[in-house]
Every structure is written in structure tokens, then in C-alpha cells.
Design a protein that fits this description.
The protein has about 80 residues and is an alpha+beta fold. It contains two helices and two strands; from the N terminus they run βαβα. The chain has a two-stranded parallel ribbon with strand order 1-2.
Length: about 80
């Protein structure tokens, strides 16, 4: 692994969870990739996206991660 957990050597398998995506990846998106811990600010990204989505148009927020706050974030999105 390289800096901040990014593999600099090339693509590699990241786990079995990739097959569990609910929807296809949208054509245009912003990516929020972080562990789902309170100090990472994923909740801020979700709140900000709620405000920006009306202005940006045909762009989605794609959130990638896992952690203890996942149920909280899912509730925020629903």
C-alpha cells in the first residue's frame, strides 16, 4: 500500500463488497471515499450534497467506505 491506503502499484482486489452495490455507478459523480467514522466528515458531505444537488444537476454523490456510522449515514440519505 502507498500513501493513505492507496495502492500505487496498480489495481488490486479490494474485497467482496464490490458485488453488493445497489446501483450501477453513474456517468458523472463526485466520490467521497473514507472510513465511516465520525471524525471523517462523511455526514458533512451528505449534508452539503443535499444543498448542492439542486444546483449541480446531473451529477451524483458516490460514497465508498465502511464503518460504525454506516447506519447513521444510510438514515440521512433515506
Amino acid at each position: 500500500m502507498g500513501h493513505c491506503g492507496i495502492a500505487l502499484e496498480g489495481p488490486e482486489a479490494v474485497g467482496e463488497d464490490l458485488g453488493e452495490m445497489d446501483e450501477a455507478v453513474p456517468a458523472k459523480f463526485f466520490l467521497c471515499a473514507a472510513s465511516f467514522d465520525p471524525y471523517k466528515g462523511v455526514d458533512l458531505a451528505i449534508r452539503a450534497w443535499g444543498l448542492l444537488a439542486r444546483q449541480i444537476g446531473d451529477v451524483s454523490l458516490l460514497i465508498a467506505g465502511a464503518g460504525v456510522e454506516e447506519p447513521v449515514y444510510r438514515k440521512m440519505i433515506d
